[in-house]
Every structure is written in structure tokens, then in C-alpha cells.
Amino acid sequence: MTKEVSDLLKKTDIRAVETQLALRCAPLLAGLKPSNLLILKNCQAQALYGLLQNTRFSSYELYGTGTETVLLLYADMPLACCLKQPEARAMLWQKGYRDFSLQALLAGFAARYASCRRSGGEFPHEMGLFLGYPPEDVRGFLENGGNNALYAGYWKVYQNLARKIRLFKSYDKAKACLVRLIAGGAGMAEVLNFYGGQ
Fold first, then answer.
1. Per residue in 58-75, is it b (16+ CB within 10 Å) or e — as a string?
2. pLDDT at 13 over 60
3. Quick check: 156 and 146 in contact, CB under 8 A?
4. For the residues 22-40, what does the mean pLDDT come to?
5. What is the pTM of this model?
6. For labelling alongside 195, which of 94, 143, 160, 187 has CA 20 to 30 A away?
């Protein structure tokens, strides 16, 4: 987290759903990334559902407890395109996915994610594909057991380092911009309408 973002956070309520969206989902909201994972208190998740109405963003519940909800926030077409890449489809096939419609993929991933959480196991490694990570980096992570990365930023990078560092910098800029807007008094409904109104 940059110092600028840190300073701006002092001016806002870090627990508010709007702040969590700005911190965790800025690259998605800015159109730089197809999806993001977001963990919210159950009451915050209810507020989020209202904020997402009439935007191009959707949410899919991956797991819930008595106090928190784990959501995948996404933009339909960008996420569908990521998951249709030949290398992504091949990896998903190897993990047992057979129906490649977006809703079937999300349902299968949610079931695998919930199973991992309930058993205390690791996350399903195809999660990177659902978060829009490049297939070559997901493959690199799997082949190397999470080791030997060229760089660790928003994910572990195994190829095309210079391009990924530029991408990570654009994510940081989107986050700083969105936090600045929220800290300056902009409402998330207004921000979502600007970035993702239908």
C-alpha cells in the first residue's frame, strides 16, 4: 500500500463497504481486471448487493459463515473472455470442469472453494484464473509449487515481468484514485455508476 493511500485511509472508515471496494476492487472497477475476491461482514455484503444493482458488475457468493461472506465480484464479459482462453480452458478441464458457461464455471469454482474452506485445505489453485491472472502465471505457480517466482505483486509472476510490473502500477494508480474519491466524499454508488453503469 502506498503512503498516499495510507494517508487517505486515515480520513475514511476502513470498515465501510465503500472503502473495502476501493481498496480491494479498484482494478476491477476501473476496467483493468475482470474480477476480485472480496470478504465482507454479512451486513456489508447486503449493502454491496444494493450498490451493484444497475451496474455492469456482478457478485457470486463463494463461501459464507455466520459472520462473513466471501464474494467474487466480476464483470461478466471480461471474466468470460479470460476463462475462454485456450490455456485457461485446458487447466480448468484438468481440474474437472466440463461445462464452460460462465454460470457453470462459477458454480463449480464456488463448490471447490467452499470445500477447501470447510476442510481447512489450501484454496483451489484455479482461483487465479477466476481472478483474471494470466494463465502462464497460474501454470508457473502450479509447476513451481508457489516458489521461484520472478516477482510477487498482485500475484506471483513467472513470465513477462516488465509487462506485469506496468500492470501492477496501473492497479496501484486505480486504487489511489478510487480511495482519493471516496476520502473526498464521493459515494460508491456514484463511482460505480461512473465506472460501471449499464
1. bbbebbeeeeebbbbbbb
2. no
3. yes
4. 93
5. 0.88
6. 160
